[in-house]
Amino acid sequence: MLRITTGITAGDRLSAVRAAVAGAGAALLALGLLSGCASGSSDGAAPGAGGSGSASATPGGDESAGSQGSGGSSGGSLEADVAQLWLLTSITDDQGTLAPPTVSATLDLREDGRFSGNGGCNGFGADVKVGDSGHVTVGPIVSTKRACAERSANEQETRYLAALQKADAVKRSGDGLIVSGDGIQLVYAPDATKSAGPKTDGDQPS
After folding, report:
1. Where is this region: Disordered (predicted)?
2. 34 and 100: one domain?
């Protein structure tokens, strides 16, 4: 009987099986490593994304707080019957009472958030915060620096502006106006030559 020899022994078959198993194991190991890397990248990106969201939220919160602060700083307005030009009739301070004034002086309340006028020799102005019941907080008064012709006029202006700087309340008294503060009182009469309400072009305090 004719015998055909293939040349493949049992040992060769076993080696081939082992090689196939080893190759499959290596492929599974590589796949596992790739999955681990992908998972690590995803986990690493999450904190970064979370951190970015947190950082953008913080400035947003600060901006909101800043906006609320700005809104809280805005003041009110004086009563409509106060918003006109007033003529000074007397000054009371730690030096006593000066009435009537040596020279004409004014207080203009026709601009919201502003005191302005003439001290007798120089024009002046100051920002004012208006609270409830006529309470006011006067900012630094700025004036021109023209010298008064008379010493008495200069002394009056100095007293007037110093008293006005201390003012913390403004109220009507009959037809007049009283501005008061710590140790001071300024009394005014309305200036009939100037209209009440907002200033118009060319309508400046005298």
Report:
1. 44-77
2. no
Q: Where is pLDDT greater, at 32 or 163?
A: 163
Predicted local confidence at residue 138, as pLDDT: 98
Domain span at residue 31 reads 9-74
Is the CA virtual torsion 114, 195, 186, 177 positive or negative? negative
> What is the model's pLDDT at position 132?
87
* DSSP bridge pairs for 178: 171, 187
Whole-angstrom distance, CA of residue 165 vs CA of residue 178? 14
Domain boundary among 30, 59, 74: 74
In this predicted structure, what is the pLDDT of residue 54?
Answer: 37
C-alpha closest to that of 79 among 192, 163, 177 = 177
Q: Report the pLDDT value the prediction gives residue 192, as an integer from 0 to 100.
A: 82
Residue 190 CA, distance from chain mean position: 35
pLDDT of residue 201: 47
- Pairwise CA distance, residues 125 & 167, whole Å: 14
